[in-house]
UniProtKB/TrEMBL annotation:
This is ABC transporter domain-containing protein. It comes from Panicum virgatum (Blackwell switchgrass). Belongs to the ABC transporter superfamily. ABCG family. Eye pigment precursor importer (TC 3.A.1.204) subfamily. GO terms for molecular function: ABC-type transporter activity; ATP binding; ATP hydrolysis activity. The keyword RNA-binding does not apply. It is found in: Membrane. PROSITE patterns: ABC_TRANSPORTER_1 (PS00211), ABC_TRANSPORTER_2 (PS50893). Residues 1-31, 52-72 are annotated as: Disordered.
């Protein structure tokens, strides 16, 4: 559970220059209004209307939250604060759950019970990746999945999101709002660990095209641009709007900015359920804190359910998590409130030393990848210290009150029931037009795809024109013309293969 929205080293924000709120939105209107130049006037007017004083100064909040939402919050126990959130929720309060469920189509409760995932190779051999994992996630909260490398964090995330690989087999109950149902469009979003972006587009263009495709046609253009501008500010990408994304061939934005852009593209629709795979990878500690605080703020203000795989967060980021699912060797070490994890480790003989990051202590205790192997352990099996810690903590969690509370909470969530509402999206014609325009922009800026092939075509045309120049109009010319047509058709067919890499790139972005 989040205890403080600010890191201990952060200074108190100056009242004259708040980072968020109406005054900052008005100050940044010049940059956000440039999202699409033909609509600059509409966006500026919208931002001025949103930043107009209402007679009561609201507390500083992320730009996605207006004054009314900031005053009311998601429920009676959730408050938005500067650059983060302070959560004083009460799980027993049914009014809190019902209030989240009523907001914008209702929140998404997801539970998973006794989930097993096994990998099958070509010879039919199997290996267990997850072994009877159970847990739940609720609206307005951020659930962090942590553990050493290879413990099954991403596998669990893929299983919950329905993106499991074909060579993996899963069994267990995964319920959404107490029933088995597929995730509808706009209800869930998944940010992969690998950034799948088009290198030729700028940050502004990538966000604009994504907004045109994902947001429904019933939403006015000015509102789409305002949503995109708010999301840009939330992820701190205002200074890189006109910079190309770049890739292996050309330098563009940094790796941390790519990760933030990937998150930005997925939260445009404000999905009810958001899956994040390593959102802080490639990001420094300060940027990771600001990114996760924005995400936690969205969870509180929008009633979003967020499940994130985090490798090793800093102490300030760890304080933002409401729930913690700690895995080791495919088993559950701990599942419950993040604030109570240190007490659980202490009560079982593994106290966290003073002045140490709790997440560092957890992972160091259960990481067995770097255990030294002596000659004695090669001949006679002797469990390492990490193996003993894992076995002790797994058994302690199964018999603890924390496990019983988690099971009771899953039962209560499954009894609530509910149906996810499918959100509207852009029409087929709009998608075709936007994707066609984006494809032309991509081809025009890709030197190897467009201009190099144009030069090759011109060279081949000159060669063919020289070879078949002035071959007459007699009967012998028919064979020459047929040869030229056959050669040209075969050449164009083979040269069309050069478009497959760009097609695969766009398909990867759509599938992801």
């Amino acid at each position: 559970m989040a205890t403080s929205p600010l890191p201990r080293w952060a200074p108190t924000p100056s009242p004259s220059r708040p980072l968020w709120g109406p005054s900052s939105a008005a100050a940044a209107s010049g940059s956000s209004s440039r999202l699409l130049s033909p609509f600059r006037a509409m966006l500026e007017a919208l931002l001025r209307r949103r930043s107009a004083p209402t007679g009561e100064a609201p507390p500083p909040a992320p730009p996605a939250v207006d004054a009314e939402a900031a005053g009311a919050g998601v429920g009676g126990g959730i408050h938005a604060g500067f650059d983060g959130i302070i959560t004083d929720r009460h799980p027993e309060d049914d009014g809190w759950r019902e209030d989240i469920r009523r907001r914008d189509g209702g929140g998404v409760f997801i539970t998973w019970e006794d989930v097993w995932v096994t990998a099958v190779d070509g010879r039919g051999r199997t290996a267990a990746i997850l072994q009877g994992v159970s847990g739940s996630a609720r609206p307005g909260e951020v659930l962090a999945i942590m553990g050493p490398s290879g413990c099954g964090k991403t596998t669990l995330l893929d299983t919950l999101a329905g993106r499991l690989h074909t060579n993996l087999r899963s069994k267990g109950d995964i319920l959404i709002n107490g029933r088995r149902q597929k995730l509808a469009f706009g209800t869930s979003a998944y940010v992969t660990q690998e950034n799948v972006l088009m290198a030729t587009l700028t940050v502004r263009e990538a966000i604009y095209y994504s907004a045109q495709i994902q947001l429904p046609d019933t939403m006015p253009v000015a509102e789409k641009l305002a949503r995109a501008g708010d999301t840009i500010q939330e992820m701190g990408l205002t200074g890189a709007l006109d910079t190309r994304i770049g890739g292996r061939e050309a330098k563009g934005i940094s790796g941390g900015q790519r990760k933030r852009l990937s998150i930005c593209l997925e939260i445009l629709t404000r999905p009810r359920l958001l899956f994040l795979d390593e959102p802080t990878s490639g990001v420094d500690s300060a940027a990771s804190y600001h990114v996760m605080s924005r995400i936690a703020g969205l969870a509180a203000t929008e009633g979003m359910t967020i499940v994130a795989v985090v490798h090793q967060p800093c102490s300030e980021v760890f304080e933002l998590f409401h729930g913690l699912c700690l895995l080791a060797a495919g088993q559950t070490i701990y599942f419950g409130p993040a604030a109570n994890a240190a007490e659980f480790f202490t009560s079982n003989g593994y106290p966290c030393p003073p002045m140490r990051n709790p997440s560092d202590h957890f992972l160091r205790t259960i990481n067995r990848d770097f255990e030294l192997e002596s000659e004695e352990t090669r001949t006679v099996y002797k469990p390492s210290a990490a193996d003993e810690a894992i076995e002790t903590l797994v058994n302690a969690y199964k018999s603890s009150n924390t496990s019983e509370n988690a099971k009771k909470e899953m039962h209560d969530i499954n009894e609530m029931g509910g149906v996810m509402l499918r959100r509207n999206q852009a029409t087929f014609l709009t998608k075709v037009l936007v994707l066609t325009r984006r494809s032309f922009v991509n081809m025009y800026r890709d030197v190897g795809y467009y201009w190099l092939r144009l030069g090759i075509y011109i060279s081949i045309s000159l060669c063919l024109g020289t070879i078949f120049y002035n071959f007459g109009y007699g009967y012998d010319s028919i064979r020459s013309r047929s040869s030229m047509l056959m050669f040209t058709g075969g050449l164009l067919t083979l040269m069309a293969i050069g478009g497959f890499p760009s097609f695969v790139e766009e398909m990867k972005e759509v599938i992801t």
